[in-house]
Structures are given as structure tokens and as C-alpha cells.
Amino acid sequence: MTVPNATPATPHNGLANSFASCGYSFLFNFVDYPAGIIPVTKVDPVKDVLPKDFKPRNHVEKGAYKNYEAEKMGGLPVGVQIIGRRLEEEWTLKGMELVEEALHKMGIRYDG
Predict the structure, then answer these.
(1) pLDDT tens digits along 12-23
(2) Which of 110, 85, 79 is nearest to 34 (CA)?
(3) How confident is the model at residue 10 (pLDDT cuts 50, 70, 90)?
(4) Separation CA 30–CA 11 (nearest Å)
(5) 96 within a domain of the structure (yes/no)
């Protein structure tokens, strides 16, 4: 299990700045592993604001957060990505189901 991307959805053409942080998703396509994403929560425009003293630690972070604005992204989905082994899509789906069941037991339900 991993994050699907470093940030929520970026604005149109925003990927030009943040493509280096997309390793979370394209890597599994490259090695032909099945993956599925489960929305878990949404961006909170108050809680998810970057601290005023935030400074990117490297060029990947700089690109990823160049377009990040919690206020504008409020309500966008944030999820987890479940990755399986090659040719085992049914187990990937089962993993997604188990994660969703565990979240429901904890009282976490995503309302899309």
C-alpha cells in the first residue's frame, strides 16, 4: 500500500512541475503490477494548509508543492493505492476490499 500521488489532483498543466513526484503511480505500470486506488478522505482547506515556514527539501518536493494550495484544492479526494503482484488482479481487488472494510470498522467512510 502506498499513496497514489504526492499531492491531490493538480491544475491543468500542473504536472509539468510535478512529474518527478509521480513515481508512486507510474512505477507499478512500468513493472506491470496491478494497482487500485481507494479514496479515503478529502483535502481540508483549513487543516491541510502548508505551514508558512514550509521550504521544500529537494527539487522533487519543490515541483510537487509548486501548485499545492489547500484552499483551492478543498474537497478533492485523497486516497491510498493498493498494489498487487503481476497477474494477480483478483488479490489486488481483495486487498482493496479489506482496506475498505477496515476503514469502515474505524468509522471512516468516503462520501464521494
Answers:
(1) 766 666 665 566
(2) 85
(3) confident
(4) 25
(5) yes
Tell me 6's DSSP state. Answer: S
**By residue range, what is the domain housing residue 74?**
15-105
The enclosing H or E element of 7 equals none
Residue reference for cell 519543490: 62
Percent pLDDT > 90 in the chain is: 54
Question: In this predicted model, what pLDDT tens digit does every residue of 76-90 receive, in sequence order?
Answer: 999 999 999 999 999
- pLDDT tens by residue, 58-73: 988 888 788 889 999 9
Asked if residue 41 belongs to a domain, the reply is yes
The overall longest dimension of the chain from CA atoms, in Å, is 45
Specify the number of domains making up the chain.
1
Residue 61: C-alpha distances to residues 16, 56, 57, 83 (Å): 13, 5, 6, 23
Tallying the residues shown for the chain, one arrives at 112
- Does residue 5 lie in a domain region? no
Examine residue 76 and state whether it is found in any structural domain, yes or no.
yes
For residues 40 and 89, what is the distance between their CA atoms, to the nearest angstrom?
21
